Amino acid sequence: MNTADEDRYRASLGKAASALRRLEAEVERLRRQQTEPVAVIGMGCRFPGGADDPESFWTLLSDGVDVVSQRSLHATEGATATGAFLSAVDGFDGAFFGISPPEATALDPQHRLLLEVAWEALEDAGVVTERLAGSRTGVFVGMSNNDYLLLSARSGAMSGYSGTGTAHSFGPGRLSYLLGLRGPSLAVDTACSSSLVAVHLAIRSLRTGESSLALAGGVNLVLDESVTEMVADLQALSPDGRCRTFDARANGFVRGEGCGMVVLKRLSDALADGDRVMAVLQGSAMNSDGRSAALTAPNPLAQQEMLRQAFADARVRPADIGYVETHGTGTALGDPLEIEALAEVFRDVDSGSGCVLGAVKTNIGHLEAAAGIAGLIKAVLALRHERIPRNLHFTTLNPRISLAGTPFVIPKMPVAWPRGEQPRIAGVSSFGMSGTNAHVVVAEAPTVEQVSPPTGPILLPLSARSVAALAELATVYANHCAQEHDPQDIAYTAGVRRDHHDWRTAVVGESGPELAEKLRTFLRDGAIPTRAQTPPALTYVFSGQGAQWIGMGRELRASEPVFAAALAECDDLIAQHASFSVLAELAAQDDKSRLHRTEVAQPALFACQIALAALLSSWGIRPGAVIGHSVGEIAAAQVAGALSLAEATRIVVSRGRIMARADGSGAMVAVALSHDEIADALAAVHTSVVVAAINDGGSVVLSGPVDELHIVLGPLERRGVRCRWLPVDYAFHSPFMAPLAVELAAELGRVETGRTTCPLYSTVRGGRIAGTELTSDYWADNVRQPVRFADAVKAAATDGQQVFLELAPHPVLSGHVANCLGSAAAIPTLRRQRPELRSLLNSVAQLYTAGYPVDFAGFFSDSRRVVALPRYPWQRERYWLDTPEPAREQAAVETAHWVEELIGLPENEQEAEIESAVRADAAVVLQLSSPSDVPVDATFMELGMDSLMTVQLRHELAARTGLALPATLAFEHPTPRAITQYLRKMLAEHAEDGS
Predict the structure, then answer these.
(1) Which of 104, 547, 674, 825 has the lowest CB atom count within 10 Å?
(2) Under DSSP, is residue 985 helix (H, G, I), strand (E, B) or coil?
């Protein structure tokens, strides 16, 4: 072999080695993917005994409560049924989910329960549902019973909604539909193991990447006693209504009701996303009994095989397991066979190691399709609370069971289970009567480094989908905040990790008790909350000179890195043109401050305004338009994108330095008169005093020589006109500024401008400008000409701007905005000598309640914890097969000759009549009591109208009008107002054809 051959050989070997390494890496990636742990990041439940959330469930378990009770049977007078029942399963908040009364009535209460508990689980996980739309979020739900369908058939209440309302597939399907989820969505029916099989399938879906997030669990309601009678015929039910798992007196189980859901995510993703990891699902397995002693008889060999598969999948040994939440039905056959299978798998484990066998069925009965998820939630809670609850009704071991030589312990008392050097691991079993078995291995969550809480004020937002729900939410949050909880974590979870609904309030405070008191004040004062349907158009208003004060910006600079960085950037650029440092001037003590001097005040004010805009931007708050008053126009132009920061600082430094030479030129006075009224007053005397600013319809500023101002003001003051001398010794925006304006234009020369990225309303021109007009001549006019602030505000309002946020160290313009447009339109930011961050957060709270989409993540520079918060307060109404239709107002519109009568009406009356008819027919279809319950701009989908109902609405309107209306009417015109406009057009065409 020559040298060339050797080189080729070596190159081939190198390529082969490289390919081998790639293959090994791919094999390792696939291995990790197939065995990746899955995090439990949220849980929700509704279990008997008032266990309406995981913590109340834990309290029930810890207190050793048996929730079995009796309830009356509707079918047989005086008869009762024994079981672990939920209360008020006929209640449902259909409006929250946009489900109309007719559909809600036909909807299986299991489906309703699933919707509410799934939402609570997502809230508990800190998952914002609007961000899930289009995501690969999977829904896996165990459901087995179909009692409501049986009741519907017997009562003759079958309707078009009965199929979609009771078929199991529509339970998870409706949840995926309402949230816009694109992952797998399926109902699982393996009888009693359904919910744990659902968890197993969710784990597999997450590991393969089919799902990025998963909701898994199950639901079960006992609504028809004929099913109970069938189960009783199998000799599986306890005659005395007690589930005595592993006890010598065991004689069957008790049927139970409930729903449980967990939110799952790959552990690596959960840690990267900062989720709260409650526990880790290490692995799982499922199989079938195959051929056993009978169709419904357990097969211990199959159970053994399944346990070994689950432990292998989780990469754990039986010796690692400290607690098994058993299927534990309390039947004479099932209990011994389950222990037999466990004993065989754990045969090599030291008998003194102490593996606890739990049985949640002794507390809440057998939840059948939801039994497995109840056991899983119990195991997660035991890991979190470091204690295993005792089993109830256990005194003597079943003689068919032997624990000799096994590590198993049946707890008669709670068992401490603290963290140690090795991670604690539990197993959860669930066996289906039809033969499908499942087991999930659960480990403790990894420890998370605690974050020290920062100090300072925080903003706590609350929202709901109705006024009543918001009041309830404020009440439970006040109670929660008053306890020993970290207010920073509460605010983080409420702001960043919760959905934000239409009805809103927000409070600012520095401690939990202060937040609690603010919420109680909100409730006590009967404050009317704000409904935020669409984000309001937001305009930034930048004040002029005079808003500055000694100490401004210091607190924000110290506490807010974004503000400090923006301020420092401005300082660097200003220093290139000025002989002073803005940062030094802002930090100067009272006796050394030069903020009263124009050449310092204007750049300092500009820098603070730019820093405020940057801070607000980091919180997701950005203007839809800007207005600047006098020197404030420079910051406005920069924020609007018409000026670069470098060019804006050049202009503000030159402007301040040149205008400083006007000191001593005169004075300025605010006068409470309209522009026309003051013009008449000035015309009555020979004076050089001029109007320097028109701030609102009843407020102007005069500028000129002091002695002439006294002459002008004398008659006004005698008439009782309010006149306020401004604390200045210059006559800005007057003819005295003309020479300085010329000098400014010359010094600026060519100004680098661009088109704005948001509307800029000029207070020189009194209307909107494009940005390219901001030449040196414009800035000369800005100095010399009057400030037409009122005109700019009115022009912005005419263009649809609704809320005006004043960016200033102290509000000097908000009152004028309020005078122009109303008090709700004006929001200040900072206030003189007030805590700056608290003041700014109060402004953001007002924006939030008005509907502005605040990015609350920007408030938290450090990672915060997701914590448990009060769940959403459902506003339930009764929906059942015997629910009477509500009495409805009759539409006051005669159908006969309706079209002909409308054609003769004036346009405004015609529109009102059509709108009334559309809302009346929509109310009939939706089974609402009044047309007033149908908002004219709400979409029919938001009102709960589905495709069947839209067709019915079309039929109602066609019958009323006699017009040929398309079947797609409500899809193409999705609001009452849109249909009204369409019908008006149709009537106009009808009138033309008739003429």
Answers:
(1) 674
(2) helix
**Alpha-carbon Rg of the chain, whole angstroms?**
36
Cα-flanking dihedrals φ and ψ of residue 806, to 5°?
Answer: -90, 115
Residue with tokens 């009417």, as numbered in its chain? 969
Maximum distance among all Cα pairs of the chain, rounded to whole angstroms: 118
920-924-925-926 Cα dihedral, nearest 10 degrees: 90
Alpha carbon 801 to its chain centroid, in Å, reads 26
**Concatenated DSSP letters of 514-579:** HHHHHHHHHHHTTPPPEE-SSPPPEEEEE--TT---TTTTHHHHHH-HHHHHHHHHHHHHHHTT-S
Q: For the stretch 544-570, what's the b/e string if a residue is b when 16 or more beta carbons lie within 10 angstroms of its beta carbon?
A: bbbbbbbbbbebbbeebebbbebbebb
H/E element, 138: strand 137-142
Distance between CA atoms of 463 and 452, rounded to whole angstroms?
28
pLDDT digits (tens, 9 = 90+) for 483-516: 988 999 999 999 999 999 999 999 999 999 999 9
Report the sign of the C-alpha dihedral through residues 138, 140, 141, 146, in that order: positive
Distance (Å, rounded) from C-alpha 612 to C-alpha 531? 27
Report the alpha-carbon distance of residue 480 to residue 461 in Å, rounded.
14
pTM of this prediction exceeds 0.85: yes
- Is there a contact between 444 and 279 (Cβ–Cβ < 8 Å)? yes
Strands (E), 578-686: 625-628, 667-671
Which of 701, 723, 698, 699 shows the shortest CA–CA distance to 710?
723
Q: Mean pLDDT, to the nearest integer, of 85-107?
A: 94
Q: Looking at residue 857, what DSSP letter applies?
A: G
Tell me how far apart the alpha carbons of residues 462 and 491 are, in angstroms, rounded to a whole number.
10
Task: Taking the CA atoms of 50, 54, 58 and 64 in sequence, report the sign of the dihedral they define.
Answer: positive
891 pLDDT band, cuts 50/70/90, is: very low
What tokens were used for 826?
Answer: 């004006």
3-state secondary structure of 665: coil
- Would you give the DSSP letter of residue 363? H
**What is the tens place of the pLDDT at every residue in 642-685?**
999 999 999 999 999 999 999 889 999 999 999 999 999 999 89
3-state secondary structure 16-45: HHHHHHHHHHHHHHHHHHHHCCEEEEEEEE
